[in-house]
From TrEMBL:
UniProt-listed SUPFAM superfamilies: P-loop containing nucleoside triphosphate hydrolases
Domain of life: Eukaryota
Record protein name field: ADP ribosylation factor like GTPase 13B
Pfam families: Arf (PF00025)
Entry keyword Nucleotide-binding: yes
Molecular function GO labels: GTP binding; GTPase activity; metal ion binding
Keywords: GTP-binding, Magnesium, Metal-binding, Nucleotide-binding
Species annotation: Sarcophilus harrisii
GO cellular component terms attached to this protein's record: ciliary membrane; motile cilium; non-motile cilium
Database matches in PANTHER family: ADP-RIBOSYLATION FACTOR-LIKE PROTEIN 13A, ADP-RIBOSYLATION FACTOR-LIKE PROTEIN 13B
Residues that bind Mg(2+): T43, T74
InterPro entries in the cross-refs: Ciliary_GTPase, P-loop_NTPase, Small_GTPase_ARF/SAR
Amino acid sequence: MAGISRCKLFSFLTACFPCKKNYQVPLRKVTLLMLGLENAGKTDTARVLKGEHKGHAVQEEVGREESSIDVTTTIGFSRINFIRGNFDVTIFDIGGGGKGIRTLWKYYYAESYGLIFVIDSSDVNRLEESKEAINEILKHPTMSGKPVLVLADKQDKEGALSETCLVKCLSLDTLINEQKCLCQLKGCSTLLFTGKKIDKSIKRGIFWLLSCIGNDFYTLKSRVERDTKAQQIFEEMKKRERAERVRQLRREREEREKEYATEHPEFLRCDSDIDLFKPTDIVLRENERRKQRMDKDIDRIFLRTHIEQKKPDIQNQFSNASERKFDDSICTEPYSVLSYIPPTEKEIDSVQQLSDCEDSDFNEKKNDTFGVIACNQIVPHNISNPDLETQEMPGPSHPIHGFHRIQK
Ligand SMILES: Nc1nc2c(ncn2[C@@H]2O[C@H](COP(=O)(O)OP(=O)(O)OP(=O)(O)O)[C@@H](O)[C@H]2O)c(=O)[nH]1
Ligand SMILES: [Mg+2]
């Protein structure tokens, strides 16, 4: 009987006092933003918070102008995690390098529960810039009203401003009254402590920030969730718009390519000829040859464009000598080839014919008022200008002015 009552008593007691583990409050996941100008000391502070302290090496660095061990400027962001009390804390340490990078800060506002703003309290020249930066952050709709901890870092350095002075310089009182947010400024240094100890000001500052968040946790949580969702939807929308734009451009390009391929089937042949497993030197030689062919074609196109613009039918011109006349402006007027259109057989023939004519009939035709066209060169003759008649023909290597080659 006594045994039964003892057993009952035990189950009664275990029901009343379950093991300690069951009593523990679940960890509250919070995200904090660590912002500030470049070189303010954010990454260093984040490391201290995580317990990745630089140890004894730090002692050696104290007193130097700048500690440079193992700290480089943050490109993008770094993320640290640690547990403090019943908070599972994630800190986004985002690089402050330049105004360009600072425009990316706003993408992190929505998911943060609070802000840690780090300033270099010894860099008096950049206080105004820091003030502008913190103003801009706290005025953002997704950030206003959230608790802010300002860490005035590098207090170990000579000439570092005091907490009171910094509150004044940054006009923090005005700002926090405007934005109705809780704010605390703590002077600190990441170099003052070694081992597992961290600067008490940093420790107290974080404790204060987390307790502010804890006091208003559920309101902040629902705000963060709502803002994050809205941001996700917005970003998703922008992503879809971008994808649609890319698809549209691709469709247009494919249509253009199809049109071109139906008009010029010989270009399709080029691609299908490529053997991916050929030795590199052969491929390079082939490419060189292809390029030369292309150059020749472009030269012909140039002639064709010219012929189309100035003499629509060269053969007719040749058959009707009285109409053979080029403008003097041909030589000087710049014109361009807008797209690569391989010449037709007929055009090549006509150009060939024209070159032949140049060779054979040049002397006879010299007295007529038309130009001689050779590859890459146009030479005008004007019978009315006796000076030109006596002028020597420029050599075939003389380049044509105003010719824009458009490479495929
Ligand atoms: N003397 C002194 N130097 C510090 C302190 N905290 C950081 N530094 C040094 O300041 C320099 C910049 O520190 P970072 O932590 O990289 O600065 P940051 O704000 O992360 O800079 P970005 O990543 O460019 O935005 C480093 O050389 C640090 O060692 C400090 O409390 N005292
Ligand atoms: Mg950094």
